[in-house]
Amino acid sequence: LADAFNKTISTKDQDLIKQYNTLIEEMLQVLIYIVGERYVPGVGNVTKEEVTMREIIHLLCIEPMPHSAIAKNLPENENNETGLENVINKVATFKKPGVSGHGVYELKDESLKDFNMYFYHYSKTQHSKAEHMQKKRRKQENKDEALPPPPPPEFCPAFSKVVNLLNCDIMMYILRTIFERAIDTDSN
Predict the structure, then answer these.
(1) Does any domain span residue 42?
(2) N or C: which end of the chain has fewer CB within 10 A?
(3) Full-prediction pTM beyond 0.85?
(4) Overall domain count for the chain
């Protein structure tokens, strides 16, 4: 990373440039997770039910799913329970079976505001699919296609200083370097 952020680096090696860009992208993703992902009881001011609801919302942002697929994709607690039954009806509506022979849950419109395209349980494929589906949905509704993340819950007191990471000199250097390279037409 130090080499990738070194301003004097000038290489024409496309493989090296690709490695640097991938490394920087992954580092920024981790920083987003550290600062923005607070949906763990004890880290953020959230309950287990809120965590489960958020997981369901993000699964259904990819596509409507049957009950079994949602249950299979939810993390289990120490008692092998997902908590699905307690919260599913708060965030989704059940659509009766059609030609396919099985009913699916669809996300309620009011739950769309909780979609975060930086959701840390998404694989790259799921991330792309969810982003595409949400932009398509917003376009159909004649809304702005931008997908800003929702405001996160507050950190618990023990983690409240995490946000100071965004103010440190190193973070300012990283952001300035990335923005300078983004506007530089000769930059890789």
Answers:
(1) yes
(2) N
(3) no
(4) 1
Q: Is residue 166 part of a domain?
A: yes
Find all residues with CB under 8 Å of 56, minimum gap 6, and list them: 70, 74, 84, 87, 88, 91, 92, 105
* Residue 115, phi-psi category: left (phi > 0), alpha (psi -120 to 50), beta (remainder): beta
Top pLDDT among 78 and 103 is at: 103
- Looking up residue 176, the CATH number of its domain turns out to be 1.10.10.2670
CA–CA distance, 20 with 4 (Å, rounded to integer):
5
Question: 77: domain range?
Answer: 30-183
In a domain, 9, yes or no: no
Q: What is the mean pLDDT of the chain?
A: 86
Pair of tokens at residue 172: 């300012």
| Residue 48 vs residues 44, 61, 93, 145, 149: alpha-carbon distances, Å | 11, 20, 21, 31, 21
